[in-house]
Amino acid sequence: MIQKPDPTQETLVLNMGPQHPSTHGVLRVVLHCDGEYVLDAEPVIGYGHRMHELIGEVRDHRGFYANVGRMDYGGALSFGHGHILAVERMLPDLEVPERAEYLRVITTELNRVASHLLWFGAFLLDLGAFTPILYSFDDREAILDLLEHVTGARLTFSYMRVGGVAADVDKDWCDGVIAFVKRMRERVPMYHKLVTGNIIFRKRVEDVGHITRDMALKYGCTGPVIRGSGIPYDVRRSEPYSIYPELDFEIPTSERCDCMGRYNVRWEEIEQSLRIIEQAITKLPEGPVMADKVPKVIKAKGEVYQAVEAARGSLGYYIACDGTTSPYRMKIRVPSYSNLSILKELTRGILLSDLVAVMGSFDLVIPEIDR
Amino acid sequence: MQIQSPNILLIVVAAVVMVLYVFTNSAVLVWVERKVSAHIQRRPGPFEVGPFGLLQTAIDGLKLMAKQLIIPAKADKRIFMLAPVLSFVPPIAALLTVPFGKVVQVQNLDIGILFILSLAALNVLAILIAGWSSANKYSLFGAVRSVAQNIAYEIPLLLSLLTAVLWMGTLNLGELVDAQGGFWFVFTPFGFIAFVIYFVTGMAETNRAPFDLPEAESELTAGFHTEYSGMGFGLFFLGEYTNMILVSAIATSLFLGGYNLPFITLNGEGILWELIRVLIFLAKAYFLIFVMIWMRWTFPRVRFDQLLNLCWKVLIPFSLVNLAAAAIWIKAVGG
Amino acid sequence: MLNYFKEIFVGIKSLLIGMKVTAFYGTKKTITAHYPFEKIPITPNFRGHIDLVVTKKGYHKCISCGMCERACPSGCITIEAVKPEGAKKKKLTGYTLDFTKCSLCGNCVETCPTSAIKYSNDYYLVGTSRHDFHFDLLARAMKAAEEMGIEWTEPVEKPKEPTEPQAEGGESPAPAGA
Ligand code: SF4
Ligand code: SF4
Predict the structure, then answer these.
(1) Domain contains A371
(2) How much is the pTM?
(3) CA-nearest residue of chain A to B296?
(4) Residue with CA closest to ligand 2 atom 1
């Protein structure tokens, strides 16, 4: 509940949002301030509610697939990956070709890099630096060009299908990906020079928004937020899916627990994603990208829960089916929602500017929270 | 203090010229800022209207003038309207005493520096009443920040200027420039430290990023001018750019030898010499502005407490020590 | 005390390094495209709104089965077809796409048994009202044929053989469409 301001206290109630430059969408945070100090921050969500879960219960599985990408505009492919994997688990006869699985991972990881680059730019924008976002968008464009070439879209990719992926890739595309990995590796030092080492930036994020391990666990934080608190939890490792067990990558963590920790974790994740992409491209097997026998109409029965590691953390689809073409119940566990819930406890007594930094370090995507 | 029977006509003409200069200066500076920021960000910037997009700001100014002035219902109307004017006029008045050349100086006051500083201090008043009268919490935050920031930064600003004044032994801007001649004050170690401190505080005084806390777009939406539209906003904008030129003009005359080249004192007579001097002066001032713009588009914004920490823990001690050292040096060596 | 000076030194150095980076990129060429004058070539795989495929003979391939209409999760496709007296096949009389509702999922294209629809590469879409995005794909196909220099020819010449069993159209009982 939103607290009523206490008239005996000299506090100021400040509505940050729903339209505010640093809430990245329609998130409203009700702040109780004492001067610049935030006494209480209460996120109010629901301004962008689109009933995705209910739509999922009305439409059939294929029909709903287009929606999942709309939840997270930053990393649409991992949302698609989770949904498709969940549906495929309800179809035990279905054999997904290896190549398709590789392509899913490659595109998802590319998307993760793009998402982190978007976050990087937006985070720096929150901190008042205007230029890094343009540099990171330069690299992000390169990824989007690659993804557009194979998926046909730049944001809501709708690339995966039950039983495979929509389109195959050619040699040129693989070369393009390799070239991108090389280019990105060359660009990373520039970002560190421009931003990471910068004294103003360091002062803004170091020791700000300290999330202890217990707190992160208590609130169910996932993704870079929990890894920034030193817990190496990554769905790709803890509940392996797809071809991730065959790939060699690390789960970067940071013991700093502050915004800087989360920042560092994301940069290291970019490097790990590049590693994954490199390996997957070299291992990419030949073959079809679509299973032979995919049922035209998916009538499943039973329950599944499939979690994947999205760019912002653990994303889970719980689908319960009763034998009809559409699910009986669909529940989506989105990472940003849990990550946001920590905000209230975390921001007690910090400065307004730090609140902006903390929210930026969470990499919130509001449509994903509201669904 | 000698009063050189001011020629009223001259002053009026000069004031008009100065206002025109300020307008063109802002227009050009906005264009420069947009171009520089664009190229830093690897974009072309404005290039459609006029050659190299030079007329873009003129068009934008026209648009601002044509816009409706929206005054919030709860705002204190009179003060709300006064604030933009108050932020815009003092820097113009202050510019009147700046020695662009030996002759091109509207009024050479014996207390030129003091005059400028007292007018520059009005800027914070403008921001304060703008934020207060807007009846907007974000504006209020911006205003409060601005007061704390400006008052804190006034101290190192004055101390660093004092070093220069002490070194040259005059408050008269024209004489300050002449006292340096070709050997700019910035070439001395004291002058260098004082210059760096002055430059940092000057950026803070003009509320430029990385010290743009009163505006702080990502925190306070637009800070103190959140509620201003049309020309109200335009005047704040003009004020900011005029303040920029003022700050760099002072830096140029006190630390960078005004219209003199390094190690060459320009004493020639005649229109041509004067023109060269003015150009040199402007070149230096605009170079400083360029650096300011460059910094703005590179750095993140500092946090409020860090801003004050920087002031109290670094700038003030340094400038104090610097001032003391300069004084001792003058006594011991004889300046 | 030493830390104090060290921090100032490191700080100033980091600021200068940052400025060097921006200066470096500031002198480089810009990387943006000046949109109305320059266009970025779009990949042929771009998924725009759907369009009917025009065959070499100057006709579409749609058999009016209505699969796409049913596969579309957003209900943006409306097919109108009639079965002329004595003809064995239905004839498509109207194919409307309500692009305002389309989520570009691609289900329609993938379910079509005859590959009669494809994604267009059209991304210059602008309109003053939402009705501008109710596309009549049949008319578009005819126009496309005209642009390709193919005459729109309806394959009516098929001789009517009365004994031929009905091949298709069994799935949709009535002429599909609203
Ligand atoms: S792309 Fe999807 S939403 Fe669009 S018309 Fe086809 S089936 Fe319908
Ligand atoms: S699925 Fe293909 S053939 Fe059937 S109605 Fe749609 S476009 Fe025509």
Answers:
(1) no
(2) 0.85
(3) A129
(4) C112
Contact A39, A32 (CB under 8 A): yes
Does residue A35 form part of some domain? no
Contact between residue B261 and residue B279 where contact means Cβ atoms under 8 Å apart = no
Q: Give chain A's domain count.
A: 1
pLDDT in tens, A72-98: 888 888 888 888 888 888 888 888 888
Q: Whose CA is nearest to atom 3 of ligand 1?
A: C102
pLDDT at res. B90: 83
Q: Tell which residue, B268, B329, B299, B319, has the closest CA to residue B156.
A: B319
Does the distance separating the beta carbons of C18 and B39 come in below 8 Å? no
Cα(C168) to ligand 2 centroid in Å equals: 12
Amino acid symbol at B45: G
In this structure, the number of other CB atoms found within 10 A of the CB of residue B328 comes to: 10
- Chain B residues whose CB is inside 8 A of the A126 CB are 218
Question: Are C21 and A194 in contact (CB < 8 Å)?
Answer: yes
Task: For residue range A311-336, list pLDDT tens digits in order.
Answer: 888 888 898 888 888 888 888 888 88
| Collapsed DSSP state (helix, strand, coil) of residue B293 | helix
Yes or no: say if A370 and A54 are a contact pair by the CB < 8 Å rule.
no
Closest CA to A312 of A221, A219, A208: A221
- Residue B269 is part of which domain span? 72-333
| Structural domain contains residue B29 | no
Number of domains chain B contains? 1
pLDDT (average), residues B272-301:
84
Question: Quick one: C39 exposed, middle or buried, by C-beta within 10 A (0-12, 13-18, 19+)?
Answer: exposed
CB contact under 8 A, C46 and A148: yes
Closest chain B residue to the Cα of A17, Cα to Cα = B221
| pLDDT for residue A5 is more than 60 | no
Residue B8 lies in a domain: no
Question: Does the pLDDT value for residue B185 go beyond 80?
Answer: no
Asked whether the predicted pLDDT for residue C70 surpasses 80, the reply is yes
Who contacts B237 (Cβ-Cβ below 8 Å, separation ≥6)?
Answer: B26, B30
Question: Tokens 């000046």 correspond to what residue?
Answer: C34
Chain B touched by A196 (CB under 8 Å) = no
* CATH, residue A68: 1.10.645.10
Distance from CA of B38 to the nearest CA of C (A): 8
- Is A21–B300 a contact, with Cβ atoms under 8 angstroms apart? no
**Nearest residue in B to A122, CA atom:** B218
C23 interaction partners in chain B (CB closer than 8 Å) = 40, 294
Residue C177 has pLDDT above 50, yes or no: no
Mean pLDDT of C64-74: 84
**Does residue A27 sit in helix, strand or coil?**
coil
Helix (H, G, I), strand (E, B) or coil at A298: coil
Domain-located, residue A175: yes
